[in-house]
Amino acid sequence: MTDTRPTPRLRHGRASLAVSFFVQGAVFALLVTRIPALQDRYGVSDGLLPAFLAAVPILAGAGSVGTEHLVKRVRPGLVLRWAQPVVSVALLTAGSGTALWQLALALAVFGLSVGALDASMNMLGVTLQHAYGRSIMLGFHAAYSLGGIGGASLAWAGAHWDVSLPVLYAPLVATLVPVALFASRWYVDRAGEQEKEKDGKQESPEDEPASAAVSMKLLLPLCLVMSFAYIGDSTVSNWSAKYLEDVLHSSEQLATVPYNVYMVTALLGRTFGDLGVRRFGAVAVVRVGTVLAAGGFAVVAAAPGAWVGMLGFTLLGLGLCVLVPQTFAAAGRLFPGASDAAIARLNIFNYVGFLIGSPLVGALGGAWSYRGAMLVPMALVLATLWYARSFAPTPARYGDGHERSRTVDVG
């Protein structure tokens, strides 16, 4: 990847996309952190709640699949421009209804549109990184983490002062939607067009290289890494508080801290992670992140008390934060002629990991022990080391010493 001087339009595109990542981080945090309030508002039973929660990532996966086909006809920037307001309005609708069917409909719309949003957002991120000629993908996910911290903080304030969901959500949606729509004017969809713009040349989309088909066999290692990363992430988001309180015997107040620590360290890791990729390469950064994350799970599993457990969650934030952005970037390099399709398929495994992680740890914790359950996501995350070569910017070499094409047609 060669370094290039970005044009003003590329810089504007980078800033506008960072705004979208920030808005999505805030909106998603406002949903997941207020699930207990949604449950109380609609009278959702404890038995029915898991079905509602599972439906969101399943429908998000369907939305990601649909986006793969949609972007063959519509630019990813256009998909993102309209998916983002739909996600925000679905959040407001979920918090404002009174009947159970209204919640179900709102969450269904949220799931489908968030799948389209996540896929198109990362498509644009990979396109911009290619145009820049250097790693910038972690910066976009840092904006997402910052939005998540802001959204979670607002949700905490809403819960603390007993603010109703419509009153909490309405002004935020009224602010965030216009901001996202305004920023969308500067989205950059095609790296090639912007690079030609610098030379004063114009070329039609038909002049671009023909898209190659995506081979799932070649994409599979990255899909597994994506799943492993989100199994780890969902373990932290769903079980950190319970683990600290029930296993490490912390106070209820202290038990709320690990996830905040995790989000802050993830923000720090993503803020400076691009510098590490530029200096040491993606493979080295992924390997270091993997070791830190696995070490974090090991510290959590062996922690004698709450503060050592907190150290483990700190390591987890620093380690896991680099894996997802680099996995999307690697998919773009792996299939340069079909990066949009590759990212849409890879994005599905975001939701696969989210669906697997929390129930897996819960089942193992109930049947065995929660300390032992923490070793399972540790082992899965550690398996990323085996697939680290998939993050290399050069063609993969195999045991016969020959290079094989990364863009292969699957017949």
TrEMBL record:
The Major facilitator superfamily (MFS) profile domain, residue ranges: 219-411
Gene3D superfamilies: MFS general substrate transporter like domains
Top-level taxon: Bacteria
InterPro entries to which the protein is assigned, alphabetical: MFS, MFS_dom, MFS_trans_sf, MFS_Transporter
Keywords of this entry: Membrane, Transmembrane, Transmembrane helix
Transmembrane region(s): 15-35, 47-66, 78-97, 103-124, 136-156, 168-188, 280-301, 307-331, 343-362, 368-388
Protein's membrane topology: Multi-pass membrane protein
Keyword flag Hydrolase: no
PROSITE patterns from the UniProt entry: MFS
Cellular localisation: Cell membrane
Annotated protein name in UniProt: MFS transporter
Lineage of the species this protein comes from: Bacteria, Bacillati, Actinomycetota, Actinomycetes, Kitasatosporales
